[in-house]
Amino acid sequence: MDCREVREYLPAYVDEAGGPRAQSIEMHLSTCPECRTELGHFREMKDALATLPARMIEPPAWLLGTLTETVVQKAARREAIRNTAEKLADPKVIVTGSLVAAGVAGALLIRGRRRRRRTVTRRFREALAEA
Amino acid sequence: MDVPADVIESCKRGEPQGFEELIRLTHKDVYSLALRLTGNPDDAAEVSQETYMKLLRVIRSFRGDSKFSTWLYRVTSNVAISMLRKRSRHDRNVSLDAESWGDLPAPETADPELRVEGRLLKDRLDTALMGLPEGYRAVVVMKDIYGLSLAEAGKQLGITEGAAKVRLFRARQRLKEVLYEDEPAGHGRQRRKKEADDGLS
Question: What ipTM goes with this model?
Answer without folding.
Answer: 0.72
